Amino acid sequence: MSTVTVAHHEEHHDHPTGIMRWLTTTNHKDIGTMYLTFSLIMFLVGGSMILGIRAELFKPGLQLMNPDFFNQLIGIHALIMIFAALMPAATGFANWMIPLQIGAPDMALPRLNNWGFWLLPPAAILLTLPFTLALFGIGDGALATGWTFYPPLSLQGGIGVDFAIFSVHLLGISSVMGSINIIVTLFNMRAPGMTLMKMPMFAWGWLITAFLLVATIPVLAGAVTMLLTDRHFGTHFFDAAGGGDPILFQHLFWFFGHPEVYILLLPVWGFIPQILQTFSRKPMYGYKAQVYSLWAIGALSVVVWAHHFFTAGMPVPALLYFMYSTMAISLPLAVLFFCWIKTMWRGSMSFETPMLFAVGWIILFGIGGLTGLVLADVAADAQYHNSYFVVAHFHYTLFAGGIMGIMAGVYYWLPKMTGHMYSEKLGKLHFWLTAISFNLTFIPQFFLGLAGMPRRIPDYALQFAEFNMISSIAAFVLGLSQLLFVYNIVSCIKGGKKATDKVWEGAEGLEWTLSSPPPYHSFTDQPVVK
Amino acid sequence: MQVLKKVGFGLGILLASLGAYADYSWNFPEPVTPMALDTLHVHNKFMLISMAIFLSVLAIMIYSIFAHRKSKGYKAVADKAPSTAVEIFWTLIPFAILLLIDFVIMGIPAYHSVVMMEDTRDKASMVIKITGSQWRWQYEYLDGDAQGIKFVSNLTTTNDQMNNAADKGENYLLEVDNPLVLPVGEKVRILMTASDVLHNWWVPQFGSSRLAVPGFIRETWVQVEKPGTYRGQCKELCGKGHGYMPVVVNAVSMEEYKTWVAAKKEEQAKAIAGADKEWTKEDLMAEGKKVYEKNCAVCHQVTGAGLPPAFPAITGSKISISPIFGEDGKYLPDSHMDRVLNGKNVMPAWKATLNDTEIAAVITYERNALGNSVGDVVQPSQVKAARQ
Prior knowledge:
heterodimer, A: mainly alpha, Cytochrome C Oxidase, Chain A, B: alpha+beta, Helix Hairpins, Immunoglobulin-like, Cytochrome Bc1 Complex, Chain D, domain 2, 3 domains, five-stranded mixed beta sheet, 15% strand
């Protein structure tokens, strides 16, 4: 089938130009580029929302916004960062790199691929439209329940909740389509000789992510649909007065929500070892151990969901089960950390920007992982839960572990994708600014949480003032540093030093055998892996 | 070396800036219940273990970063997978250490904490019920001398303080009109529920926090060992007033507690007696203004203008200017009385929260102030009758 497609394309070398090229494209590189661009734009949108929050929290008292608007910003910030920034970034890399890495001419289902992307912009518009409408006096603004949609609060909410539900449906459909495409591609289109256990680690990470998405997105879709019928059609799934249970929603939501964390991280765990081996100039350590660990984490991630609401009240055996199973995730994760560090150990390391991000990523993600381990403890969780401690914890996993990992990937593959080298100087500056301001933003939040500051409050008691001020200032530095990132990417696309085919001295893998940038249709001769 | 200098510089700034607030709490606040104490111990122990793991791994990485550099001419040494039994044994050692840490060193104390946290009934000497509602806590004593005492606890911080028009008080956002009063040293079983959305009753120094779920009863317990005033907050996002429903608990000696119970009982008896007398319009208006500003103004605003469309205006609204009672003397459906007693959608039902006098006063106030001038008066006796 795929060969037929390729042959067909070879006959007409022309393809639409201008806007139609992007609207109708079925080319994996074009679609990957669109995903990555969309992700970058939404990263800036979500980031500016949180800068509004940090400005409000700069000092006690209400300065800039009313509490309702504050609640809208926190929820939409999270939904945008998770669904519109991190996930599309990972899917963008998958589109660009998986065919190149496995020696395939394109993704297996190119039209589905196009559709999967073009569902995203409408979804993003739906998420943010209620803000705009509210400015013109229509409706009462966006979802104000936090990204978790917990009923009964979400049953009270206005039209913004319906917009968000519909948006989540679209985002979910898009993710499932992307995942099916990746699974089919990986199972059917690997170059001859590339057995599953010879696949690049990035492909492995994505394969497991794709399975998790296919398994859990329908649960989320079901949960928010139940919410929708509760809101408009008089069902009582989550209303105790009608025999329902608000906590049921939390179970359904986190059955999706916890695997979602690994959905965001597994692709990153895939390409970080590739970056480490490239800049350590020796093959990654423990390939098999890593693959098995990824599977173990994928499997464990769907059986630990209730640790997100220990304080909701559960029988003791359930508390113990969810506590111990959550702790068990540290075992395969520790194997991964061991392999990553062992890959660096006694290598011949150099520290270009991707490597800086990768090494910084290991350290910061390590903090996220270890604080996650203490959060698993039920009794202590009664204190950490919904405090700023948790906020700091998941930003160490999702900003450091997710977004900084993605940044490592961007710097790693940008020369391959554009054919130009980015500015190494600016890249390094970007790394140091990001790493330092990130820590200055979130370390104070650990202490705020321990001191007893709940999350999602628009105003706070006076004893929390100093740490909030430090955190806000650092958050602005962190936010503004990202403009360097954008500038570096844009100037790299426009021009710069020509990149060689291999780009990095220690790079291994099929994507580095192609020219930089790779031809529009790659691998006219199918490569063979020995 | 460049790298290390930068890291060191960053950490230096961090420590210097944090050192400026040396009196600041770096950990959980001082625990005053057995559970908070236990939680603190578990937390400290876990944090030490985590820090030890983190720092030792970091040390290995930093060594590698400086020693195994291409710029120093270091040549990569290929890894070989463990092949002999001895090598495999050594590879498994870290795995075993982690198992030990997770499930023995951390797992066993965690087990005991969970069992202790969930044991709400053994040796409990009294029971109270806490109801969360948007955006206030309601406390009810269910047994013993205090049985029947029931009151609402509202934030007392003024709007001026929140809007930076006045200086913020010492307990900004953490002060209430009626704190919960508990005797020191007694194990108090707490039944937790909510009337509208999820809330979470949390006092950091107590170490207990439990979700309040509308339609369900959840349990937790506290046993305060040290007299004092303890402050906390709602910990589950519950709408626009989430940041404005603090928890304040006065832990007092048994004698003081008994005195408080007697006083509170007397106060409640007076309120019931007040319901039977005929009130003047001026007294009702004065009382009504207080009740309105404490309970209603958060949504309907002090001026009565509301925040449409979520929170309708009182001023000129159909409900607050149309008649309350029908010809048979009973209140009409969707009348002012009906709405205040029973609520509708987002509007809470106040019949369990406010007493007859308060409801009569606030209805009278809403109909004759805030730009309305209906002219009628609702007496507490009418509210009492309406409840039947």
